[in-house]
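=== RUN LOG ===
request id: a7f3
mode: sequence -> structure
chains: 1
length: 664
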Amino acid sequence: MLLGDSGSGKSYLLGRVKRTLNPKAFFAYIGPWADSEHIWRHVLRYTVDSLMQVPEGQQDSQLMLWLKSLSAFTKRNVKQRIAEDNFWEIFQTDRKKFIKHLKQTYKSASIYNPDIFFGVLHDLTNPELYDLACEWLRGDDLSDESMQELKVKHCIDSEDAAKTILSNFGRISTETQPIVLCFDNLDNIPTLPDGSQDFPALFNINTTIHNDYLKNFLVIISVITDTWRRNGERIQQGDRARIDKPVLLKRINLEQAEALWSYHLNSLHQQANPLPDSPIFPLNSDILEQNFPGGKTTPRNTINQGKIEYQKYKLSLLEAKKPDVKPTPVIYKHTLPKVDIKQPTPDKKNPVIPPPLPLKNINQTPQLPTPTPQHQKDKSQAEFELLWQQEYKKTQVKITKITLLSASELMQIIQEVLQALQIQGIKPKIISGKYANHSLSYQQLGKGEIVGLIWTEEANMNTFYNIMNACQKAIQENLCQKLYLIRAGGVGKPNLKGNQLYRQIFTNTQHHHIQPNLSSVHKLATYHSFVNSTLAQELFVAGKAINLKELQTFIRQSKLLEDCRLLQDLGIFTPASSGSGTSGSNTSKPEKTEWQPVKDFLLNLVITQHYIGRNYLVENAHRQFPELHEEEIEKLINLLWVEKKINIANPKANREDQTVCLVV
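=== RESULT ===
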């Protein structure tokens, strides 16, 4: 168990452990779960998802490296080596021989459903079935057609099945590298009736693994020290005894804090001529003594304080050297050459770059707007929006399809967003039965009507029928006056009972079917990531850790969710083109252009930095939006200048020497 204060470097240490030991172990990252009743399925899903990642410097995923490293394929006698030069290739092409060989090799390992499990492992070796095999292993509820392709009759649909499949991974790999399960960021887990967090569910898993039910696993649980103090006593003594080794990350002293500043400033110092006398210039040790009088701090607090002091230094330079003449913006009338932005070919081994933003009419001469106050957005809001764009980009790469998230996670995510938007009367589980956690209800804006939401992406039509049946019962019992089905996938053939119930409920009635797009899920999941970070005291805005209420205020003020199509389809926001309304608002606003996010990023960066080199501004924007050419980013900087939202302090200087600042 890894313990430490918020900001002590727990997640950073886990990252270092993975980077250092990845050649010697397989790593799985397990984040907070939405429902403790499905915790084993959550662990299995996140384990397989992590094993599907390709380690740095490798061509294959962790999952394929694990499969190829099994003793069944690496330990051969002399006769086998002589007779079968292409040992792996032979098993790869012969499914029956593959299954028979693994059953013979691991006959004493008590493998759960060996024919099915080893058959799915063989499907991993087939590029056409690899993705489908991974979906089965992670516990997705597959369609009958998909199960036929994999030659299986059932999916992993229970906690016991998930636990035994996870145990299979360990039981056949006792002679290979261990699988490391890293539980981190656990402050947003379900709560018990007494209000405490459900850590007993997690430590029960650890005990089960520890007692040899699951072999060849190493569990690392990362917890904030204060969270452990509040919840540790509620964990059964037997589960507490299964913690083999607690590791406490201590606070650092001021000498270590100064070394941290020196490390981060070194790259800037190397560009300076002459070289600064102090390795922490423009900072000094007095700042550390003044801000941390106890002589101890955390790495994060040290870095945040350094950012604040460095910004003060920059502003002092700006105050000392204000331009004497306010330059008149120049309207560029020439047209830049058209840039052909080619989208990369999708590649499973490389991150997916979001599609390019078409810059409509960007080369037209803009109309000069009527001067208005420019600094309505403060630095904190601007910094929050920058953090949002960075996290949104990570989410786009991480979530490539909606079904990567479980139904429980999707419901938790949308519930958190509704709470942030101050929607009233939110209650979980409007339907009853096995799929209750797929649903919730809330009170419609401005009305007394109860709105029900059900989100299901399971491809299995038997599951779909059961959910439709539960929806019909909820309507008959008048548990809601309007029901929304959120589902991107199909609804089955017309002759299926599930489809017939679906049409009865959602055709020509007050109930509606919404097909969410991936962009909406990215926005909702980005906010969910912020909630996790906030509850773990890891989200800092303007040098200050913000709480959940402050996060909710930021998300409302930023209006970053107003263009989420799913929320628009639910009637929570109105599309901008028809006169926008927020939750309870009917005020109109101009329609956002498709390249507005780039302009927002540029402006927010200037607001937070106050004083920034033009080249550095372009480089940062290009890193955030790699699909855009630098010439197009330059054009957007010019537009912001024309709109009097930014200023060029020295417009007559060479472009690489120009400095961008706010309009005074």
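=== NOTES ===
The radius of gyration is 28 Å.
The longest helix spans residues 299-320.
=== END ===
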